[in-house]
């Protein structure tokens, strides 16, 4: 279900990155609070490892790596022509990428840009949107299907987990989107079209709606969990909300907007900051369209 590629690709691409010097999280106050991505990039996902941030392109699936200290970067790997959406970096310096309409996932070496593996989940009516890493697996959402895809971190073949319970998928809509680990060893996903939040049992696939105390996560996209605090990006609302998780549900604790937001989609943390790429869904994309990444303090 996957293909391995040698280091030849890295040599062909010539995209080896120089390792960043160590930096403390407290030093981030001197880092730029906004920086540009290449024109026409169409970003969606973000992952941060050390002081390097990674961004996938919806246009062609290429991967861009930027130094948070300067905002400067370069293309790490050329894409397959299909999107790169949600991203995560594991402790082996591998970047896990959700492949959108390609129905796949890809794994890259962040040091060389080498493509290490590809997993084909589906070929029709698919939109592989986001990914989270657990101790043993990478879990991917599909916004068109009531499933999750599990890929072992040892790159063995994947499995498809059918979801049951409270989740109801609307055909043709953007359903399951952001995904994080839960407090109890399970998973938490947001459903963009309904604004609902669900707990998922990774063994049985049972979904249970999380009580939001009257709130709705309209346009819910990328998720980030830090302890009991769950950050939810609400893309077209140009907002990031913080919810406090409990056994009984999730309670809205704070919200943040910013004049620089232009449909932010996903979120990653460094130091006291949250970093969000502006996807600009409301702006028709061209090769000259500009895109930025914005850093804000946690709400």
Q: What does this molecule look like?
A:
The structure is a single chain. By secondary structure, the chain is mainly β. It has one domain: Neuraminidase (6 Propeller). Helix content is about 0%, strand content about 45%. The chain contains 1 helix and 25 strands. Strands 14-18-17-16-15 form a 5-stranded mixed beta sheet, with no helix packed on it. A 4-stranded antiparallel beta sheet has the order 1-25-24-23, with no helix packed on it. Strand 3 and strand 4 form a beta hairpin. The N and C termini lie far apart (about 40 Å). The N terminus is likely disordered.
Q: Helix and strand layout, with pairings?
A:
Elements: H1 8-13, E1 34-37, E2 43-49, E3 52-57, E4 63-67, E5 73-77, E6 87-89, E7 94-98, E8 104-109, E9 115-120, E10 128-133, E11 137-142, E12 147-152, E13 159-162, E14 164-165, E15 176-181, E16 187-191, E17 196-200, E18 206-209, E19 220-226, E20 229-234, E21 239-245, E22 250-257, E23 268-270, E24 273-277, E25 291-297
Parallel strand pairs: 14-18
Antiparallel strand pairs: 1-25, 2-3, 3-4, 4-5, 6-7, 7-8, 8-9, 10-11, 11-12, 12-13, 15-16, 16-17, 17-18, 19-20, 20-21, 21-22, 23-24, 24-25
Q: Strand sequence of the main sheet, in spatial order?
A: 14-18-17-16-15
Structural class: mainly beta
Reading off the top of the CATH hierarchy, the class is best stated as Mainly Beta
The CATH homologous superfamily: TolB, C-terminal domain
> Which percent bin holds the helix content?
under 10%
Number of strands: 25
The figure for the number of domains is: 1
CATH architecture: 6 Propeller
Number of separate helices:
1
Query: What characteristic shape results from the CA principal axes?
Result: globular
Poorly predicted runs are 1-21
Strand percentage = 35-45%
Query: What is Rg?
Result: 18 Å
First and last CA, distance: 41 Å
CATH fold-type name? Neuraminidase
The largest sheet is: 5 strands, mixed
- SSE topology string: HEEEEEEEEEEEEEEEEEEEEEEEEE
């Amino acid at each position: 279900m996957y293909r391995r590629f040698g280091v030849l690709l890295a040599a062909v691409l010539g995209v080896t990155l120089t390792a960043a010097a160590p930096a403390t999280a407290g030093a981030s106050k001197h880092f730029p609070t906004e920086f540009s991505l290449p024109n026409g990039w169409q970003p969606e996902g973000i992952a941060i490892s050390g002081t390097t941030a990674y961004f996938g392109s919806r246009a062609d699936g290429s991967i861009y790596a930027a130094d948070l200290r300067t905002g400067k970067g370069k293309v790490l790997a050329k894409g397959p022509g299909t999107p790169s959406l949600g991203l995560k970096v594991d402790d082996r310096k591998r970047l896990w990428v959700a492949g959108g309409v390609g129905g796949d996932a890809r794994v890259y070496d962040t040091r060389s840009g080498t493509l290490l593996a590809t997993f084909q989940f589906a070929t029709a009516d698919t939109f592989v949107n986001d990914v989270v890493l657990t101790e043993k697996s990478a879990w991917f959402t599909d916004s068109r299907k009531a499933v999750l895809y599990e890929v072992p971190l040892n790159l063995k073949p994947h499995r498809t987990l059918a979801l049951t319970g409270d989740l109801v998928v609307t055909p043709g809509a953007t359903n399951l989107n952001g995904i994080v680990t839960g407090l109890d060893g399970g998973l938490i996903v947001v459903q963009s079209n309904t604004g609902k939040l669900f707990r998922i049992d990774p063994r049985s696939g049972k979904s249970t709606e999380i009580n939001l105390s009257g709130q709705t996560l309209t346009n819910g996209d990328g998720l980030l969990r830090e302890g009991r605090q769950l950050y939810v990006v609400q893309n077209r609302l140009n907002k990031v909300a913080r919810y406090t998780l409990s056994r009984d549900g999730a309670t809205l604790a704070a919200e943040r907007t910013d004049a620089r937001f232009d449909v932010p989609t996903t979120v990653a943390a460094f130091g006291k900051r949250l970093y969000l790429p502006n996807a600009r869904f409301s702006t028709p994309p061209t090769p000259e369209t500009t895109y930025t990444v914005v850093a804000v303090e946690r709400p």
